[in-house]
Amino acid sequence: MKPTSTYRLQLQPGFPFASAAGAVPYLAGLGVSHLHLSPVLEAVPGSVHGYDVTDPTRVREELGGEAGLRSLARTARDHGMGLVLDIVPNHMAAVPRHNRALWEVLREGPSSPYARWFDIDWEAGGGRVLLPVLGGRIGDETDALRVEGDALHYGEHRFPLRESTLGLPLPELLDAQWYRLGWWRLARTELTYRRFFTVSELIGVRVEDPEVFDATHAKILELVRDGVVEGLRIDHPDGLADPPEYLRRLDAAVGPACWTVVEKILTGDERLPPDWPVDGTTGYDALHRIDGLFTDPDGLPGLLSHYREFSGAPGDRGGYWEATVRRAAHRVVTHELAAEVEALTRLAERACAADRGLRDLAPWTLRTAIRELLVRVPVYRPYRRDAEEVLSPRAAAGAKAAFTVPEEAAAVDAVRNLALGALGESPSHDAFRARFAQTASALRAKSVEDTAFYRHTPLISANEVGGDPGRPAVEPEEFHAYAERLARDWPATGTVLTTHDTKRSADVRAAITVLSECPERWAEFLARVTEEAARRDGGRAPDAQLAWVAWQTAVGFGFPYGDRLTRALLKGVREAALHTTWTEPDAAYERAVAAFVENGPAGPPLYSVARFARELEPYARANALGAALLQLAMPGVPDLYQGTEREYRALVDPDNRGPFEEGPPDGRTALTRAVLGLRRERPEVFGPAGSYAPLRAAGPAAAHCVAFCRTGAVVAAVTRLSLGLERSGGWRDTELVLPGGGRWADRLAEGRSWDGGAPVRLAELFAPGPVALLSRVG
Questions:
Q1: Phi, then psi, of 6 in degrees rounded to 5
Q2: What's the pLDDT at 387?
Q3: Which of these, 76, 344, 685, 768, is most buried using a 10 Å CB contact count?
Q4: CA distance 220 to 90
Q5: pTM of the predicted model as reported, rounded to 2 decimal places
Q6: C-alpha span between 550 and 544 (Å, rounded)
């Protein structure tokens, strides 16, 4: 059974399979068809997310083991529900004491049967793997190392010893291992294994090797074959050497009945490759289109102007999105991803050495060309079908501008041709092409999601995965075109509003987005609370950028809980890397951030924040309910994050990753139950055979209504830009003509119905609330 809707549960030791089973009756009553479980395979003990897999052949004991998972599946099945699993093919935890496969590789070296599992460059490391785990240089940490039995201990770390080295003096013993312990800072430049983004604690897995695929997927495939699992979410496929081939192999193994979506981030108008054997994406592309509908394009210039004036600084804080992205990319590629660039340079040298025409290219020119081309990749990853467009001649010309000697700029052409596969097929060429694409995805994620999103902040609700802060507004016709395309090409794709990775939950974003409709009102509020905060010691923000983000976050949160707000803001300033970073923290600056939150948004001005948030609440509620109905009723399979069937306000992880709690229902719950109930009752209306037809209002306020009909049987209509609607005089004579034939019953307010084919005044349709859900009767 394929899903009609999914509900994401964050499993962790404090919320194991048994707890999830306890939530099944409630979720079945909500209308959910499938539980969407965070990773369930064996992970680092105590992990609250499960992406640090240690053994892909076993279900995690801390969650209840395989027996617990199978019991949960039976409970779900008894309530008419199935399971969808989040799987992690790209990486495992680089923690030898918990990862048996990695332990064996470190003990036996490249001859280990597990050596092919991991993406390790043995040649670059002189036959040894760098493990950057030491708190300082090796000479300063020797006294902290000790041998016990057949293992080397360092704090909580434990490493295997080669059998022939037992009994050697410590210096000789260290030199005789298949690994080299190093200062943690060496990871930035010296790492010799592929990692997940910049997380050295996660080592890349070579699932492109058929034997590795079989070994690491055997348990998942068994669960699918046994009917325990009916769907898979594929985490970060762009990190793989060959995503299309991986997906083809997976599809052949699980069969057509298994629903499969990929966490593929699409940029701008980028499309999911049509030949991928999947049902679609995890839904960030839908999030962007939905949120964009409630962003006022007419108010954005004023908001941006206030932002530039308030921040008082050019460059990264000056409000120019593309320039911010480029600067962030240059920083990440030269700092955080320096080791990845070095790995690419080594691969390029090896490939060029085999080509007589490229042998004289100096390593530094190759390195420069690699950097300059990487920062010009406009999407997460080039694929063979679109590589010429992504790595365009224009990008190559821009990369060449970094060279002062034209002859040395020839390295750009060499690197581009290698990345395109234009120099022919060979192991060294294939290795470079794959690694270039993998690195491009890591660079895009780190420079855009984790850096530029925290530097360019006129409207922080737009800074969400898959979003476009440079163009956050989406017009209704653009949304309709997107939804029609989904109905035609990807009817079973996932759609989301809130996930475990969103920087702000949908409700927080809905409130902040209202500011795009009232930039002058926001500027007045900002001036007032800035003055109120400045009256207290510590109430002045360490910089204007931080203040702007803090006050917007507080307004979106509704009531600025100090600890949660402080944690989110500290994470943001470290990611932005303008004043402090994760690896080089500025303690004084971070203390100033905490003091500002305590005396500003969470101090006496909090009453002004709460009052302002209450004033905007009706419009924020209209945004939130409208977004919820669009997601639930549009083409695709809606994925609800735990708790979002009611008001749910959360910030960036870990704030949003607590265990599931069943809470009191509210208006959102009724809306959710109504739409999900329709989806389960009438899958032919919403499923792959269904259709999508835009409905267009007529009248003076037509632009404030977005409506559509699903398969001639269900109509969804929402109010957009409700503050502007109120200012312009309301709905007045604006009408919407319902599809002809029969009567249309209101599923959210009993006793209301209208004739098909006749115009309905929107003031009447939306009298009970800002959204309407109708179903055809008779």
A1: -130, 160
A2: 86
A3: 344
A4: 15
A5: 0.96
A6: 10
